Model the fold of this input.
Amino acid sequence: MLVAGTVLRTTLQTAPSIQRPNAGFNMSKFKLGVASKNELQGVHPDLVAVVKRAIELTVQDFAVHDGIRTLAEQKKLVAAGASQTLDSRHITGHAVDLVPYINGKLRWEWDPIYMIADAVRKAAQELNVPVRWGGAWDVDFTASTDSPEDLVANYVARRRSAGLRAFIDGPHFELPKATYP
Ligand SMILES: [Zn+2]
Done:
């Protein structure tokens, strides 16, 4: 969960070019840990499949920080300003938060978040699963072709030009309600 104030600053920076994994190879460097696997329990199998493929493709290690959430947990997050809705896709098992794991710590930083988003999109395309990303809520992320950093910058610009606040949540991926009610 990222609070808009902290992220608007960083979205304007130019991210370094993202290293792409070699197509055709399965040089899996990373594995989901026990805590990550536990977080995936109860999550929709299509999203679990995307996460499992993404950890094989990613150049940036990540942990599943949040899968299923109870309504009580969600209420706490809303009270803390870390989420805006009680109607969260986490409660129904349709969302995961994938947070960069760097030197043994979870890091909410955009450059590694973009690398993870890149791997998630690649996995979603391979598995033909529509995914909605918290970095650009109004975009069909699986079908998109712009870099994740451009998607975020354009989303923020769209919201601003509409006079709206941009709540962006880079680690958040969900199955869209239209296809997964
Ligand atoms: Zn989330």
About this structure: The chain is about 40% helix and 10% strand. The first helix runs from residue 4 to 11. The pocket of zinc ion is lined by residues 66, 90, 95, 97, 169, 172 (CB under 6 Å). Residues 1-18, 20-24 have pLDDT under 50 and may be disordered.
